Amino acid sequence: MGKPYVRLDRNQAAMLLVDHQTGLLSLVRDIDPDRFKNNVLATADVARYFGLPTVLTTSFEDGPNGPLVPELREMFPDAPFIPRPGQINAWDNEDFVRAVKATGRRQLIIAGVVTEVCVAFPALSAIEEGFEVFVVTDASGTFNELTRHSAWNRMSQAGVQLMTWFGLAAELHRDWRNDVEGLGTLFSNHIPDYRNLITAYTTLTKGR
Amino acid sequence: MGKPYVRLDRNQAAMLLVDHQTGLLSLVRDIDPDRFKNNVLATADVARYFGLPTVLTTSFEDGPNGPLVPELREMFPDAPFIPRPGQINAWDNEDFVRAVKATGRRQLIIAGVVTEVCVAFPALSAIEEGFEVFVVTDASGTFNELTRHSAWNRMSQAGVQLMTWFGLAAELHRDWRNDVEGLGTLFSNHIPDYRNLITAYTTLTKGR
Amino acid sequence: MGKPYVRLDRNQAAMLLVDHQTGLLSLVRDIDPDRFKNNVLATADVARYFGLPTVLTTSFEDGPNGPLVPELREMFPDAPFIPRPGQINAWDNEDFVRAVKATGRRQLIIAGVVTEVCVAFPALSAIEEGFEVFVVTDASGTFNELTRHSAWNRMSQAGVQLMTWFGLAAELHRDWRNDVEGLGTLFSNHIPDYRNLITAYTTLTKGR
Amino acid sequence: MGKPYVRLDRNQAAMLLVDHQTGLLSLVRDIDPDRFKNNVLATADVARYFGLPTVLTTSFEDGPNGPLVPELREMFPDAPFIPRPGQINAWDNEDFVRAVKATGRRQLIIAGVVTEVCVAFPALSAIEEGFEVFVVTDASGTFNELTRHSAWNRMSQAGVQLMTWFGLAAELHRDWRNDVEGLGTLFSNHIPDYRNLITAYTTLTKGR
Amino acid sequence: MGKPYVRLDRNQAAMLLVDHQTGLLSLVRDIDPDRFKNNVLATADVARYFGLPTVLTTSFEDGPNGPLVPELREMFPDAPFIPRPGQINAWDNEDFVRAVKATGRRQLIIAGVVTEVCVAFPALSAIEEGFEVFVVTDASGTFNELTRHSAWNRMSQAGVQLMTWFGLAAELHRDWRNDVEGLGTLFSNHIPDYRNLITAYTTLTKGR
Amino acid sequence: MGKPYVRLDRNQAAMLLVDHQTGLLSLVRDIDPDRFKNNVLATADVARYFGLPTVLTTSFEDGPNGPLVPELREMFPDAPFIPRPGQINAWDNEDFVRAVKATGRRQLIIAGVVTEVCVAFPALSAIEEGFEVFVVTDASGTFNELTRHSAWNRMSQAGVQLMTWFGLAAELHRDWRNDVEGLGTLFSNHIPDYRNLITAYTTLTKGR
Amino acid sequence: MGKPYVRLDRNQAAMLLVDHQTGLLSLVRDIDPDRFKNNVLATADVARYFGLPTVLTTSFEDGPNGPLVPELREMFPDAPFIPRPGQINAWDNEDFVRAVKATGRRQLIIAGVVTEVCVAFPALSAIEEGFEVFVVTDASGTFNELTRHSAWNRMSQAGVQLMTWFGLAAELHRDWRNDVEGLGTLFSNHIPDYRNLITAYTTLTKGR
Amino acid sequence: MGKPYVRLDRNQAAMLLVDHQTGLLSLVRDIDPDRFKNNVLATADVARYFGLPTVLTTSFEDGPNGPLVPELREMFPDAPFIPRPGQINAWDNEDFVRAVKATGRRQLIIAGVVTEVCVAFPALSAIEEGFEVFVVTDASGTFNELTRHSAWNRMSQAGVQLMTWFGLAAELHRDWRNDVEGLGTLFSNHIPDYRNLITAYTTLTKGR
C-alpha cells in the first residue's frame, strides 16, 4: 500500500570506495579533515565488519591526484583494486563494472571524493542499470557546501538514497544482539562521545 | 483536483517517542541542548495536551545508551513502554508494533534520537505499511547538520512529512477557541518570546 | 513535451498576507529584523504596484498576537481584511476563503508569519482545492532555520512553488519596457545595492 | 529498468551565459566575490575548452545594470550576443531563443545573475519546450542563501539538474586521456589546491 | 610578582540584574531564546544559591519596555527593586547606587539587556568608582554578534572581567565538598547534558 | 581610584561620516545591506536628533567610488562637506581637520566605509592628537569579518572605543525623561522590534 | 627595546592536563568531537615527544564527571595523577601545586575541560604566582563559542598566552633538523592533510 | 598627548613573505582558497607596486612542505630568497635576519603560512628587537578560526599591528593623486567589485 522501504541488507550490499587519494583529499573542504578522515575509516570499518564485498578504485593515481590513502589498501588487501587509467566516471571502466557485478550484489554503497564527480557519476550510472544505490554522504567530500548540495540534489532526484556511515552500520546490523561487542567497538573507535559513554558505563559497572 | 492535504487530526494521530535516552542524547549536536530539551518536552506536552495515544520505547537501556530521561516516563505513566532488547529499528520489535497498532491510529507522529536511525527506520517501515507518518524534526536530534539533512532527504523522498512541534500543536488544535488558555499555556511554557507577549499583554490589560 | 512552466501572471494572481502581527513578529528569528521588515514591505509594494487583489488576515489580534503592523493596513485600505476569531488555518475561515475566491484568481501568492503554520496551512489547503500556490519565502518568517526548512519541505512536496519577492516582481513584470521607472523605483526602495547603482548611474549620466 | 542517467555530452550541449553584468554582480552576496568571479570564468573556460556553442545575453545594459563583464565578451568574440531591450526572461526574447535553437543542441547549460530570475526563468521555459537543462549553481549568484535555495527548489522540482562548473567539466571530458594537459591546465587555473598539487608533483618528478 | 587573580568571593560579591523586561527581551537576538532564558534563570539561581545580595532594576517599565519577567521578581521577593523613571544608565539613579552600596560588597556581578547599554553603562560607572566588576556574558543579550563584541571590547578595555554563569558558580563555590547536592542540583536544572550524566550515574549506582 | 569612564556627552561630541559613497558601499560585505543601510541612517538620525556638529567627507567622488548617498547630503544640508581630492586618510586633508576642529568638540564619533581604511586611519590620527575617539562599528562596513576584526583590533589597541548606534543614542540621551517621544520615534524608525513593541503598547493602552 | 618574546622552552616547560573526564567531555560543544579528541591526544603526544614533565588531575571522578579518558592515563603511566576530592580550581589542591612545583619548571602549559573553569582558574592562579602560562586553546573545550571567548578574554587580560597544539610543537621543536622523522610522525598522526603530503611525497620519491 | 599613530611608510617598510609553499597551503582552511590565493598575490603586488624591499623564505622545501608557489618567485626575481634548512622560526635563521636587516627598514610587514607559527614566531622575535611589526592577516592562513584567533591574540598582546592587504595599500599610498591609475589597477586586479565599479564608470564616461 505504502511506499516500499528499500532497506540495506548485509547479504545484498557491496561497498564501492572511489578515489580517496592523497591529492584529491586536499580538495575536500566541506567537511573538517579530522572528521572526514574518521568518517572514511569508519565507513571502511563498516564494510569490513559486515563482510561486504568491497571494490577500490582510483583515478589517475600516478599523477597529481596521488595514491590511495594507505589505510584503505591495508584494510582490504584482497579486494579488487582498479586504478583507472583515465575514466573519470568509474562506471566507464569495464574492469570496475565487472568487479562490481562479480560481487553479485544489487545494493551498492558508494563513498568517494569528490562528491559531484567521483560519487555522483557512478551512482547515476548504477541507478540506470537498476541497482539500488546508497551514498555515504559523510564519507564523500567536496569543495564546499554549495557543491555538496548541488550533488545531493542531482543524486536524490535520480533515486539515490542518502545515508551516513552510522545509519549504514545500524541498518546493516539490525539487532544489537547479533553482536553487542563488535558493534560497540566499531562505535567506540569512531564516535568519541560513544566511547566516553562506554568508558563511564564500564567503570561504574565493572566492580559490581 | 489538487493534491490532498494530509492533515493531522487529533482523533487519528498517535505519538511515538523513540530512544530519548541519557546516553544517546550526548550524541545530539545538531541542536543546542537547551533548545533540544525544550523541544522534546514541548512535543511530549503536545501529546499529553491533545490526549494522543503515546508509545515510549528505548534501545538497550541497560547499557551505555542509558535510561529514558525521567521526565518522559513521568509524563506518560500509563503509556506502553517498550524497552527493546536489541532491535535497532523499533518497528522490528513486535511489542512496539503491536502497541502502535493498538492505538488504532493511522497517523503516526515520530520523534527520537538519533534522527537517521531511531527516527528514520521506523518511519520508513510505517510508511511501507501504509501509515501516514509525520516526523517532529526539532524534537529529533543527530550528530550534525550533514547527518540531519541526509536523514531528512531519505525520509522525505519516502513520503514522510516533516513537522515541528509548534506546527504539530497548531495543526492539531485547529481553532484557538477550542481552548485559548490551554494552548496559550503550552506556548508560554515552551516559547520564551510567547511568554513575554502574554506577560506584557496581561500586565497592560489586567487593570482594565 | 517538457514540464509546463507554471508562471505568475499579473491577471491571474492574488496576494494573501497572513498574520504579520506585532506580537507574532517577535517570534521570527530565521531572518534578521531589518531585512524581514524590508521583505514584507517590498512584497506588499509588489502587490500594490501590479494591482494584485490582496487579502489581509490576522489571527486573534485582540490577544498577545497583537495587531497587524499598521503599514500593511495603510497600504491596502480597500482590501478585504479578515481578523480571524480563532481559526489557525486561514482557509478554515469562511470569510477568508470567500474573499480569496471573490478575487477570481487561480494563482495565490502567500506570505505570512510563522511559515510552518500561518503560511503552510492555507497553502496546503489551497493546493488541495486546485489553486496554483506560490509562497514568498523571504516575506515569511519563523523561529529558526530548522523550522523553516521543515516548512519548505512539506510545502514543496505538496506542489507549492517557492519564490522570493524579487522573483515575484520580475516574473509579474515580464518586460522592463512595461514601466522602467516604476519597477526601478520599487527596486531602489527595497534593494540598497540597486539604489546605489541607480544613484551612480544617474549622477554620471544626468549631465550628458 | 532504472532511471536513465541524463548525462552531458559535448556534442549535445550549449552554454548560455545570462546577465553577468557589472551592476547586477553587486547584488550577488550568496557567494564570496573572489570565488564567484573564479567560478564564472571557469565556467566560460569550460565552454571554450569543449567548444560548446555559447550564447551571451544581457538585460538592459545601458542602464544601471551595467555592461557585461569584459572578460566574457573577449572570451567569446564570435558568439551570438543578445542585449535584451527589456525582456527579463531571456526566453521571451525571440533573438535569444533563435540563437539557442540555432546551436542545434538539446542540452542547455545555464549560468547567470541573479539565480531566481535570470537563470530560473529561461531554465523553466526551456524545460517546457523539452530541452534538458543543467544549471551551473556556483556560477549563478543571488542575494543570499534563502533566495538561492528558493530558486534551486523551484528549478529542481521542474526537472532542472543542478551542476557545478567542476562537475560540468568532468562530465563533458569523460576520460583524462582525451587530453591530460588541457584539463589539467583548466583545473590548475581555477582551483588553487589543484595548482599546488601539480606544482608539487612536477617539482618532484621533473628531475627524474 | 605576577598579576593578582581578582577572584570572586561569595562574601564580597553582589548580583545586579538590569532590565530583563518582557519588551526589551524581544530585542535580544545574539543568543537563542531557549538558551538565553535558561542562562538568566541560572544566573539568578546562582545568586540565590550563594546568598548574594541582589538588586533588581528596570527601565521605564510602564511603557513598551514592559515589566520585569515575573520569575525574577518571584525569586527575589525581598531584594531591592528599583524601577528607574528614566535614567538609562542604572548608575545614574541614586536609589540604585544606594542599594548597591548598601550591600557592602566590592565585587559587582552584572547581567542585563541590552549588553552595550544596560550592562556596559553601569559596569563602566562602577569601575570608575573602584568596584571590581564581573559581567555575566551569557545572561546579557543584545541585537547581534557585532553589537555584542563591540560591547565586550569596550568593557574589557575598561577592566571588566567577562564571566559566564557556569564560571560564576564554580568560582563562588570553590570546592564541591561545600555542598555536592546543592551545586549538582543547580547544574542539573540548567545544563541538560549534566542532568543526563547525573541520571545515568544514579541509575547505574543506586542499586549498589 | 578605578579607570575613568570616558562617556559620550552631547555637548562634547561631533559626528564624522566618512565615505558612505555609492561605489564603496558595494564593497561592504560584512553586514547585510538592509541592516547596514538602516544602521547608517540611524547613526545620522542620532547626530541630527542630538544636534551634534557633523562633518561629511568623500574620497574621490568623481571616479568609480561614486557620490555620497543622497540621504546623507539631504539630512545635513548645512554641514561642512569636504570632498577630498585624493587623500585616503581624511585627517590628511587640511579642510577636513579644520572643519573638525571648528566644531570645538573633543569627542569624535566616526563611521565610514571601509572600516580598516576610511574609519581606522582618521581614528588613529585623531587619537594621536588627543581626541577621544568613538567608532560606530555597525555603521562602518568592510569586505568581510576577517577584515573587520583586524580593523577593530588595531583601533582598540590604540585606544578607540567601539560603540554601536544604539549605544551611542543611549549614552548621549542619558535619561528617557529628556524626551520620551523623540527617542522613542528614533528607535521606532530604526528597530523593527521596538516599533512593534510601541504599536502593541499603544494599541492596548490608547483606549484606556 | 621591544617587548620580550616569552618563548616556550622544552627545558622550562611542564604540561598540565586538567579534567579530560568522560562526563565533562559531553559538555564540550565549541569544538567538534572528532577534532577535539584529536587535539587532546596531539597535545599529550607533544608532551610525551618533548619529554615535558606532565601532571594529570581530575575533578570528583567518582561521580557523574566520570573517569579520566583511559588514553591519557596510558600515555603517562608515571606522571603524577591527582584526583581532586573537591577543589574546582586545581591550584587550590595542595598535592597538585606540589606536583607542579616539583617539576621545577616556570612555563606551564595548560589544557582542560571546561575552559572557563578547569583551565582558567589554575591559569589565573599560576600567573599570580609568577609562572609563565600558556593555554592550549584547541585542547580545551567548553559549552559554546560565547563561553569560549569570555574565557579567552579573561585569561588573556591576565597575561596568559593563547597557543594551539601545533604552535606548541613548533615552538618547542625549534628546528626540524633536531628530529625530522619524529616531528613528521607527530604531524602525520594528527593532521590528515599533513599525512597526505607525506604519503604523496614518499610515493613519488621512494623509487628514486 | 594621545597615543602615537604607528603608520606604515613606504620608505620605512619591508615585506617578508614566509612559507607560502604548495604543501603548507593545503593546511590553510580558515580562508577559502580562491580568496586566499588572491590575498597573497595582492599582498605581493602591493610590495612590488610600492617598491618595498622584500624577503622570501621557505621551510624545508625539499620535503613534503613543497616548493614556494612559483608566482611569488617570479614576481620577485631579485629578492633575497632564503630556503631555511630547518629553523621553524625564520628569525632563528641568520641569513634571513641578515637579509631583513640589510633592507635598512624598521617597519616589517609579514604574511605567511601558517599564522600561529611561520608568521607569529618571527613577528614576536622582531618585536623583541624593536622593529615595528605589521601582520597581513588576510594573506596569512591557518587550520581554522580557532587557531587564527589564538594567533592573533598572542601577536596583538605583544604589540603586533593587524592589517589587511587593502589597508596596507591604502596606508602606504597616502593619496590617490600619487598615482590614480596604478592603485586603481591594483584594486581592479584583486577586488572584483572594484573592477566592476571601474568598468561601469569607464563605460558610462568614455563617450563623453
Largest binding interface between chains: A-B, 35 and 39 residues
Q: Largest sheet of chain A, described in full?
A: 6 strands, parallel
- How far is the N terminus from the C terminus of chain A? 51 Å
What oligomeric assembly is this protein in?
homooctamer
Please work out how many helical segments of chain A DSSP would assign: 9
CATH level-1 class of the largest domain in chain A: Alpha Beta
How many domains make up the 3D coordinates of chain A?
Answer: 2
Q: What is the CATH architecture assignment of the largest domain in chain A?
A: 3-Layer(aba) Sandwich
Fold-level CATH name of the largest domain in chain A: Rossmann fold
User: Structural class, judged by helices and strands of chain A?
Assistant: alpha/beta
Main sheet: strand order of chain A: 3-2-1-4-5-6
Query: How much of the sequence of chain A is in beta strands?
Result: 5-15%
Can you identify the CATH superfamily of the largest domain in chain A? Answer: Isochorismatase-like
Order of helices and strands of chain A: EHHEHEHEHEHEHHH
Percent helix range of chain A: 40-55%
Radius of gyration of chain A: 17 Å
Q: Write down how many β-strands of chain A occur, each being a DSSP E stretch of 2 or more residues.
A: 6
Mean of residue pLDDT values of chain A: 97
List low-confidence stretches of chain A. Answer: none
Protein name (chains A, B, C, D, E, F, G, H): Hydrolase
GO molecular function, one term (chains A, B, C, D, E, F, G, H): hydrolase activity
Keywords (chains A, B, C, D, E, F, G, H): Hydrolase
Pfam families (chains A, B, C, D, E, F, G, H): Isochorismatase
